[in-house]
Structures are given as C-alpha cells and as structure tokens.
Amino acid sequence: MKENVGRHTHLFVEETFVGHSGGTLHWKIEMDAITAPEWFTLSQMILELSEPFREAIGIPRGGVELGSQLNQYGTGNLKDPILIVDDVLTTGGSMEEFKRNRAFRNPTKYIGWVVFARGYPPEWCKALFQM
Questions:
Q1: I need a labelling partner for 43 at 20 to 30 A (CA). Which of 26, 73, 75, 114 fits?
Q2: Which residues contact 128 (CB under 8 A, 6 or more apart)?
Q3: Can you list the pairs that 18-23 forms with residues at least 24 positions away whose Cβ atoms lie under 8 Å?
Q4: For residue 1, is pLDDT > 70?
Q5: Cα radius of gyration (the chain)
Q6: Is the pLDDT of residue 6 over 90?
Q7: DSSP assigned state of 121
Q8: What is the pLDDT of residue 8?
C-alpha cells in the first residue's frame, strides 16, 4: 500500500504525457491513488460481474495488484478461461499483446477486465468504468 503522508494523490490529473501505446494524452488516471481496501472492493465488483475463471493474471505494472486480489478466487478448473486484468485501458493494445503472448504458450479461452477504459476494449474484455 502506498502511503500518502502529508499529501493527497488525485485519481484524475490534468497532465500531458505519452501513453503506453505512444499517443499523447492530456489527462491521466493516477491509479497510485487507489488504496489496498479500494483494490479489494474493485476485485469484488469484478467478481460479481465476471464468469468463473481458472486463474487471474495482472498485466505489469498496473494490473498486478488487481490480479493478485482476484487470483485467490480462481477455480483451477481447466475448462474455465484465464482472466487477464489491467488498471487502465486506452487503446486495448496491452491487453491484446498480453493475451497473444499467453495464448502462444497456453492456447485456451481468455477473458479480460479493466477498471477504467478510456477507449473501447476488445470484445473479449470488459470495463468496470467506461469513459
């Protein structure tokens, strides 16, 4: 858990930066503002909406905490899909790339969840909050 002693980290920040996909963005969703109890609640929200999954894997760096929270609820059943999670989706490129790399080694069904989607997720992926 990140401590914000003496300062407050805002979830939404007006800031120009280059996103993972290489595009210039003018506002940021600062997921370091999310606390451990909030990550737990987000995981529970996804559990209420998601189909059962074999295991959960978080895309580094943003999806690792969420993947860890959700993995404990994996069924271990080989017939269930693998869940890929991330914090913020902009173009969907990271989700597609991660799935492609995993599917090459482990061909199976995959489902995806993200907390925030700035754009439209791939058809196999859902967002808790769609911008």
A1: 26
A2: 42, 45, 46, 49, 113, 114, 115, 116
A3: 19/90, 19/91, 20/90, 20/93, 20/94, 21/90, 21/91, 21/93, 21/94, 23/90, 23/91
A4: no
A5: 15
A6: no
A7: P
A8: 64
Which tokens is 4 given?
A: 């914000």
pLDDT in tens, 83-121: 999 999 999 999 999 999 988 888 899 999 999 999 999
Q: What is the pTM of this model?
A: 0.88
Assign 83 to helix, strand or coil. strand
Give the per-residue SS3 of 48-81: HHCCCCCEEEECCCCCHHHHHHHHCCCCCCCCCC
Angle, helices 36-49 vs 64-71, to 10°: value is 60
Q: What span, in angstroms and rounded, lies between the C-alpha atoms of 53 and 56?
A: 7
Q: Please answer whether residues 113 and 87 qualify as being in contact, where contact means their C-beta atoms are separated by less than 8 angstroms.
A: no
DSSP 18: E
Identify the H or E element spanning 44.
helix 36-49
